[in-house]
Amino acid sequence: MMITRWRDRSMAVAPFLGAAALLAINPGDDGPTICPIALLTGVACPGCGMTRAASALLRGNFDRALDYHPLIPIIVVLFTAGWVWSLLRRAGKVGPMPSRVLNLVLIGTGVSLAAVWILRFASGTLPPV
């Protein structure tokens, strides 16, 4: 029972710890690249810029966040909805997310990331690696 409580508490607090880390670290253009795809290929991946975008968003710099990655508002909404659903699920308030909904969200997110990456690659606006 103690493990379950610890897991529930850590799951509830994890996003806030992540946000605090982004605020404390403040990733920027001159920081090291940690993306394995970018390190191997020298080209930003479809998710590159997302950490910097989240950091800028937390600081209230919406324009800069969109420059880093235009999908950051959608990703934040999806992340928040998934986190809330997970907490409600663990509390027994909701059942499992229907597979059809989950698949639609995952495929839609993947297609959106790929489409934005193609547009950014073609226009030369991928984030620096």
Set down the secondary structure blueprint.
Blueprint: H1 2-25, H2 36-41, H3 50-58, H4 62-68, H5 72-90, H6 99-123
Helix pairs in contact: 3-4
Supply database-style keywords.
129 residues; mainly alpha; 6 helices
Describe this structure in words.
The protein is 70% helix and 0% strand. The chain contains six helices and no strands. The radius of gyration is 17 Å and the shape is globular. The mean pLDDT is 90.
Please summarize what this structure is:
With 129 residues, the chain is mostly helical. It is 70% helix and 0% strand.
Cα-based radius of gyration, to the nearest Å: 17 Å
Instruction: Provide a count of the helices.
Output: 6
What percentage of amino acids are in beta strands?
under 5%
Q: In total, how many beta strands?
A: 0
Low-confidence spans: none
Order of helices and strands: HHHHHH
Cα shape: globular
Look at the structure and give the mean pLDDT. 90
